[in-house]
Amino acid sequence: MKKENFVAFDCGNSSIRVVTGLYNGETIALKQLHQVPNETVNVNQIHYWDILHIYKELQYGLQESFVRYGPVSSVGICSWGIDFGLLGESGQLLGNPLCYRNSFGEAVLEKMTEEEKYRIFNATGIPDHPMNSLYQLLGIKKYLPEYYAAARKLLFIPDLLAWLFTGEVCSESTIASTTQMLDMRNNTYATEIIRRYGLDISLFPPLTAHGQCFGNLRKDIADTLKMTVCPFVSVASHDTASAVVAVPAEEDDFLFISSGTWSLIGTERKEPLINRDVYEEGFANEGGAFGTITLLKNSTGMFILQEIKKELEKGGRAYSWDEITRMAGGCEAKIPVFNPNDARFFSPRSMISAICEFFRKDLTIKEVLASAYLSLACSYRHTIEKIEKLCRKTYPAIHIVGGGCRNHYLNQIIADLTEKTVISGPQEATSLGNIGIQLKVSQPDMGLLQIRKILRESISVKYIRPTDELAKRNTLNSYYDNYRALFN
Ligand code: LRH
Prior knowledge:
The chain is of the alpha+beta class. The protein is 41% helix and 21% strand. Helix 13 (321-329) packs across helix 15 (365-391). The longest helix has 27 residues, at 365-391. Bound molecules: 6-deoxy-beta-L-fructofuranose.
């Protein structure tokens, strides 16, 4: 069989990546074509995404795929959730998309009553968070009224990129679910909520079905890149949803952590779970591939460590992740723990200072790092215990996928602390899941489980078993007790 060449655009919170998946009829070989950091740009205290920079980098990767592997069978796009760009009356982009780390949504959410918050959760399946697109959009309407008034279409990041590449204006359910404006029971926009808060329903583009072509590379772009036109396929365009497609689980009920800047900790379900307990615990029913639901907690992930690393590197010297984990592992003092999801760590000027201020003392850098890793692992255990309670089930293993799964130091702490086997990999879960869904175009009978099987057979994973050293377990459990005490 002729090899097919599928391209995944994978734009995460911290990197822009283009990957080709060469499919031989049985398995997929991933080839990374291009990767550069993704960063926000701060102008007058507002964080923006540089979408045209992202667009240029993706063009470069697409062209590389054509040069190296010939005509592209199709392209799928996925990105981080929540953020969006606005198009005006003449069909042009009105500005760079704002980043969810701005505070536009905060003031809006503060004014909502408990009853309103629950009503929105009940209608959408998504709990409140100031960064959600709903609150951001209401914040923009209030604080940047001329920007909102000029908007005629709202495109989430993958949709905005799709529009730049194809000219098509459309969306899909996984990315739309991160907005808190999608009704997760019916997979349609939550029109009642959108109207109730005075937002314009016509801003939202139609939703496409997974595994179908929605457009083609614009001819002028193909000519500039000196390549042939290729189709664009609707994939699970929220990066988390694509990553879940590539979880190498054989069983159909599994626990996953999609580990990157954020850690999405959850399970895959056929139906949403919308009730008071889920709301109180802050779990979200996000959209998954082919109408599945990912019941998950959107939890701080590697962000805290990425920020500390950046801060250390301001001194002019680069630190590898191995070095960072060695420093953390070399901490011999008692390790203090904090809640990584505390608002103080959401967007601080200095993460190191924020951590020291939280403990009201100067910690050594080894202590800061050890504390960040341990706190992260404690937050994972805490969330997993809640999932097990909500789903009335105990899971023996945790699948960790995404860039963060490479961190063996962290994986071992997670295994030891949760007393579960960690199955780590694939690191490129988002790109792999993206490409997996593209297989459906030429094989329409293929379902999620078959796609997952092909992806599983295309990769290898590592098993990390929990320690059987009692003393180590006891120390970790006492740290975890300290962590739990933060919530009393
Ligand atoms: C993970 C993620 C998460 C969002 C955040 C902005 O990459 O998409 O689901 O909440 O980024």
